[in-house]
Design goal:
187 residues; two-stranded antiparallel ribbon; globular; 18% strand; 9 strands
């Protein structure tokens, strides 16, 4: 059995290739997310909130922003409302880019580069403007717990975000499929 320090230490997978335990990756992601803060107290408050299993508000527009996607179109295009199925669909559709889901699954936030706001034209979704605050759940909360937001698609590495083009395409596709479903139900 290894000690805690040994368990956290990087392991060599092959000569020259280091593998870092998930806890180290989570810490790196937390640190990167906290770098979006403008106020010195914000990173400390965010880290404490995560330790307390809370969802701190982090500022968009410096390192990242988010596109707010309504749940119904996402569920329509995913073909399911089951969280695990929708999460798998989003991971595939957005090529592993990070997504936060609301506790009630009524909204998803795809994390994208801050420059996305400049050219965002999709009326069915909203790209959060600089200075807007986004609730960011603890990095380790990766499955749905009723009433709590979670990482539908986890952020596995700092600065790895969703492709703006893929998010826009997913939003448009979701709206098209959802409208078609509503038309069939109304007919």
């Amino acid at each position: 059995m290894c000690s805690d320090a040994e368990a956290r230490a990087p392991m060599e997978a092959a000569p020259g290739v280091m593998v870092h335990p998930g806890q180290d990756r989570d810490l790196a992601v937390e640190h990167w997310l906290c770098c979006a803060s403008r106020e010195p107290r914000e990173p400390r408050e965010a880290r404490q909130a995560w330790r307390d299993e809370e969802t701190p508000l982090l500022r968009c527009g410096i390192l990242f922003t988010a596109v707010s996607l309504p749940g119904y179109p996402i569920h329509s295009v995913a073909g399911s409302t089951e969280p695990a199925e929708v999460d798998a669909f989003l991971a595939q559709a957005l090529e592993g880019g990070p997504v936060i889901a609301s506790g009630g699954l009524m909204r998803y936030w795809a994390l994208v580069p801050p420059t996305a706001v400049d050219g965002w034209t999709d009326p069915a979704s909203e790209c959060l403007t600089p200075g807007t605050f986004l609730g960011v759940p603890p990095i380790h909360r990766k499955t749905r717990q009723p009433g709590l937001s979670y990482w539908s698609v986890s952020m596995d590495s700092p600065a790895v975000l969703c492709s703006t083009g893929l998010v826009s395409r997913l939003s448009r596709m979701g709206q098209t499929v959802h409208r078609a479903q509503l038309d069939r139900e109304g007919a």
